[in-house]
Amino acid sequence: MSTNDTSSQPLTTSYAKAPTRTITAGGVTYAYRELGPKGGIPVVFFVHLAATLDNWDPRIVDPIARNRHVITFDNRGVGASTGRVPGSVEAMADDAYTFITALGFDKIDVFSFSLGGFIAQDLVVKHPELVRKLVLTGTGPRGGKDIDKVARVTYWDILRATLTRSDPKEFLFFNRNATGKPAARAFVNRLEERTAGRDADISVRAFQTQLKAIKKFGRSAPADLSTITQPTLIANGDNDRMVPSVLSDDLHRRIKGSELIIHPDSGHGGIFQFHEEFVPGAVEFLAR
């Protein structure tokens, strides 16, 4: 195992300025960024389909990093991390476990979005002792209704975006209406705030492997989520076309004591559209 020395680094609280580091474990070199004050339980961010380190909204990350040690990472085969993307969500969770324990942590809080939420659920079911608190956004349970159709929706919206020279996330994450369109543009612009040391894009092959893993996850037998006793915050928009919004209700019913936030007039990226409303509650939840 090897890691970059961070002991002499100044405190970074801006995601746009957080340096990219690497750690090698289990034959894979993982790329990650960290920011916020060290010490205590870190908040590890689990990112969405096709996403790299550059896909986290700084308006979500920065407020959490004001008082918490935040870590984002590229899972195996994504962005600047080496190796090949695994063919199952469960294997992605195993890699996440390898990465987190290589950094020396035995307790974390999880902030997840979309595919990241699938991975986070598999991680917490398999390693309940590792996770203290769980934030599940824009996501759903293993075997959830229409999760196996994510690939179809994704390819359709990539086509629509290509024809209009837009970012596919504008279609996939936001409603195409008077409130959604400006929110989409603002979100995509925020992802460009980091100008130096940007991550490599995901390869087409890695993206396709992720889609196959999502389809498999959607067609699997449901996991027993009653075993999740960690405080859990669930959030989504009310019109999620990628991971249907009803699945957030499903998670809320199955995870005892969980909290549910559904943002109005918004899609898969509801937490990004409503970051000003969502983030203070998420910060408070994680600080409790």
Automatic annotation (TrEMBL):
SUPFAM superfamilies: alpha/beta-Hydrolases. Pfam families: Abhydrolase_1. Gene3D superfamilies: alpha/beta hydrolase (3.40.50.1820). GO terms for molecular function: hydrolase activity. Keywords: Hydrolase. It comes from the Bacteria. Residues 43-272 form the AB hydrolase-1 domain. InterPro entries: AB_hydrolase, AB_hydrolase_1, AB_hydrolase_fold. This is Alpha/beta hydrolase.
